[in-house]
């Protein structure tokens, strides 16, 4: 594998215009969530089968890059990657973990699924529990939900006073600036599904006995606040998409597209790091001799 | 998938006599490590290609069982599985993690790689850091090295007084009895390679620039104490292989066999649990109506 980190994934795949996708998904100036079509597939000209093929093809590449990234960390490279996954219920966060993150060696991944905070967690600031789960050097940290819940459900359900919620955007930006300054590449993803697609996915959970366990009546309570959530997302996305911690809104009505897009964002982050296998920090011939003698 | 948990993996595979393998690998009365051939493949009549095919075939089954196991935990099932991996350097612990554990949804796995203890860890009893990493309900916990290091390298390098090491076997047995009593199925695996096979694997690390990072001159220091390690393993295996926390010595000169064997031990543990998809704890028709209205 070349060590120059040139990002050539999808280079020969006319269907996958990765750079175009990345730019289209990124939340920038004047972003409007309501203008994003959850059924669109920015940058990808193919169909489901093509997308799945591309995903499978690049899985090994992602795993290889991660190994090189990890190897560097054993030799002093302190860099790390943090992937933050947000999205409404059924938007496919679990599927991304399983099918994109799952293709990486488990030894290189630190996954945290954040649930409703415990009493102990609530006794601290909302960033406390997140800070404790930041990934180590050479690792890809994955947050399935995150500190953003505190400005999403926190805002919609008024779990904190309005001025406190307001203040949290600034706290988040400060926090993420620190984390990024600490050699972390932060990638924040909102998986964006339509309300109709969510209905279909919830219906499946109610139709299939092997899916009942995934259903919670509370999901429908949240669903009834759909517009409030979109508004909370719009606020969070625009106020916290920064140079050092950008948001990407990934249309997610097509699961295969969402997975491909997130895989690409990880590939892009690692490819841009100029990774290389670390040189031996011992004398090779000496060690070969020792090995032969042992 | 049937919910009765009948263990039918490999049922139609004449090459893989799983039960026979399990019995052959298990450390029982009168166990003698020096009598185990690291190049053997107990219970498996096929070759590498057959073994790899069997591994790939059962990967999905393991993943499916784990999902059902996890589902149960969301509905009050408190059971958990702990896989302890030990073995000399290059014995293939990392490969088992990557190829066996890596086939399971990352959301169902809690992996801990134990390194040399930190100062903070050393200020506690040797079981302290392990206790903090026991898996939650519905999870498969994996220890890549474990508290056994404290009676392996601890014994060989005399990191603690002899009577303290002696005492640790009892402490381990007490600890594991507690953990098992706490609804944990404990599976302890020693990956057993020959000294010759280790030489080949270390040589590869010295020959290939993409493997240098895996080599540590200290590995050869440990290698020079080979017989002392075997003796420390023999003591640990015989003194701590119990009904509630049995040891399995898996011949590991053939990586494909070691992976297949460990996969089987996990499959066997989950298959024996009488897993079933949990029933809905809500009224399905009511929720369907709510969904339709929302």
UniProtKB/TrEMBL annotation, chains A, B:
The keyword Kinase applies. The keyword Transferase applies. It holds the Pfam family PPK2. Keywords: Kinase, Transferase. InterPro entries: P-loop_NTPase (IPR027417), PPK2-rel_1 (IPR022300), PPK2-related (IPR022488). GO terms for molecular function: kinase activity; phosphotransferase activity, phosphate group as acceptor. Residues 47-273 form the Polyphosphate kinase-2-related domain. It comes from the Bacteria. GO terms for biological process: polyphosphate metabolic process. SUPFAM superfamilies: P-loop containing nucleoside triphosphate hydrolases (SSF52540). NCBIfam families: PPK2_rel_1 (TIGR03709). This is Polyphosphate kinase 2 family protein. It comes from Cryobacterium tepidiphilum.
């Amino acid at each position: 594998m070349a060590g120059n980190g040139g990002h050539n994934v999808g280079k020969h795949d006319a269907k996958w215009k990765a750079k175009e996708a990345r730019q289209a998904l990124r939340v920038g100036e004047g972003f409007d969530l309501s203008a994003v079509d959850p059924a669109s597939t920015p940058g990808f000209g193919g169909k489901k089968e093509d997308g799945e093929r591309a995903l499978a093809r690049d899985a090994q590449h992602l795993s290889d890059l991660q190994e090189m990234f990890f190897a560097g960390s054993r030799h002093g490279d302190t860099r790390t990657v943090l992937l933050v996954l947000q999205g409404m219920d059924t938007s496919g966060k679990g599927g991304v973990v399983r099918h994109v993150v799952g293709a990486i060696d488990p030894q290189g991944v630190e996954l945290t699924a954040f649930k409703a905070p415990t009493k102990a967690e609530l006794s601290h600031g909302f960033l406390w529990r997140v800070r404790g789960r930041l990934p180590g050097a050479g690792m890809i940290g994955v947050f399935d939900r995150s500190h953003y819940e505190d400005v999403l459900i926190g805002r919609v359900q008024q779990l904190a006073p309005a001025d406190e919620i307001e203040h949290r955007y600034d706290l988040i930006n400060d926090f993420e600036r620190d984390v990024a300054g600490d050699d972390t590449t932060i990638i924040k993803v909102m998986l964006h599904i339509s309300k109709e697609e969510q209905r279909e996915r919830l219906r499946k959970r109610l139709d299939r006995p092997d899916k009942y366990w995934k259903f919670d009546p509370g999901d429908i309570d949240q669903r009834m606040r759909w517009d409030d959530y979109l508004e909370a997302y719009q606020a969070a996305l625009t106020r916290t998409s920064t140079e050092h911690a950008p948001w990407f809104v990934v249309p997610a009505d097509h699961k295969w597209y969402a997975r491909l897009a997130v895989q690409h964002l990880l590939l892009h982050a690692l490819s841009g790091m100029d990774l290389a296998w670390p040189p031996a920090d011992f004398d090779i011939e000496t060690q070969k001799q020792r090995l032969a003698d042992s």
